[in-house]
Design goal:
Blueprint (H helix, E strand, L loop, with lengths): L5 H18 L1 H4 L6 H11 L6 H14 L6 H21 L9 E2 L2 E2 L1 H5 L1 H20 L5 H13 L4 H9 L7 H11 L1 H14 L4 H28 L2 H4 L5 H4 L5 H5 L1 H23 L4 H11 L3
Antiparallel strand pairs: 1-2
Helix pairs in contact: 1-4, 3-7, 4-5, 4-11, 5-7, 5-8, 5-11, 8-11, 9-10, 11-12, 12-16, 12-17, 16-17
Organism: Corallococcus sicarius
Pfam family, one: polyprenyl_synt
Protein name: Polyprenyl synthetase family protein
Length: 297
């Protein structure tokens, strides 16, 4: 069976996401927005990156519709997911959390604009995500807003961040799995499900997206933890070893490097199986699952 060529797919989809984000750049900061705030929001949103979450959203929309993803609701869903992801990075980098100086090879938002404005730029990105998602006549937009809000909220990404900084966090696999299903996995699951919802997919497709997103979300985080101890700062575009310095528990620290890699491979296999009914043979979703652990940055 031929192996799907991911590189050209990723380049085209990443370029599509960049174009969609730039199309919405003027709307990102509505009339009356202080210019410096608008600049800070755009600085992080348009800084590039893997764009994995919006690419997954577009790929699932393609898989269930077998048509173009150039509909407004699909495009808005993909952009809204990236707004929320970017806000989370801006806040994660702040001195009160990860205290990072670099993100995607550039100075972090607070290093350029100062801590107060970086905090508010993140707030702006989060709220504008829902402006983008809710603006339009399609009834499905309400479901998409609810999906994204659950993933970003107290029982999702924010709650996972709280578990990550808790003083009494346990150095156990169960705790790590719970933490990262919330902190990293919730938004990846939502991106997959939102692609299905936006394209009019059925309950079975939503189930496939749920299983796939859960597996890829965990695999992606395990790969991040592995890269943090095996890659260089130049490869990653950000400092390495920050988790260990902060006393946080990672998959390699808790279960070992080789077991972490085995877990990631098993999760990729689960993700590939979940989307086989949608793709048949090897396709972009299966290839994206492999990419989540084979990447070098």
């Amino acid at each position: 069976m031929a192996v799907f060529e991911l590189d050209p797919f990723m380049r085209s989809r990443q370029a599509r996401v960049e174009a969609l984000l730039r199309e919405r750049a003027d709307r990102l900061a509505p009339a009356g927005t202080p210019p410096r705030l608008a600049e800070a929001m755009r600085y992080s949103l348009l800084a590039g990156g893997k764009r994995l979450r919006p690419v997954l959203c577009l790929a699932f929309a393609d898989a269930v519709s077998r048509a173009s993803t150039d509909t407004a609701v699909v495009a808005d869903a993909a952009c809204a997911v990236e707004y929320v992801h970017t806000y989370s990075l801006v806040h994660d980098d702040l001195p009160c959390l990860d205290n990072d100086d670099l993100r995607r090879g550039k100075p972090t938002n607070h290093k350029v604009f100062g801590e107060p404005l970086a905090l508010l730029a993140g707030d702006g990105l989060l709220t504008e995500a829902f402006t983008v998602l809710a603006t339009g006549p399609e009834p499905v937009r309400g479901l998409l807003c609810a999906e994204l809000a659950r993933a970003a909220g107290a029982a999702g990404m924010v709650g996972g961040q709280v578990l990550d900084i808790a003083q009494d966090r346990a150095a156990t696999l169960d705790y790590l799995l719970r933490l990262h299903r919330m902190k990293t996995g919730a938004l990846i699951r939502a991106a997959c499900r939102m692609g299905v919802l936006a394209a009019g997919g059925d309950v079975a497709a939503l189930g496939s997206a749920e299983t796939y997103g859960d597996a890829v979300g965990l695999a992606f985080q395990i790969a991040d933890d592995v890269l943090d101890v095996t890659a260089s700062a130049e490869q990653l575009g950000k400092p390495v070893g920050a988790d260990a310095e902060a006393g946080r528990h990672t998959f390699p620290a808790v279960v070992g490097l080789e077991e972490s890699r085995r877990m990631a491979r098993d999760l990729v296999a689960r993700a590939e199986a979940a989307v086989r009914p949608l793709e048949g043979g090897d396709g972009p979703l299966a290839a994206l699952a492999r990419y989540s652990v084979e990447r070098t940055s």
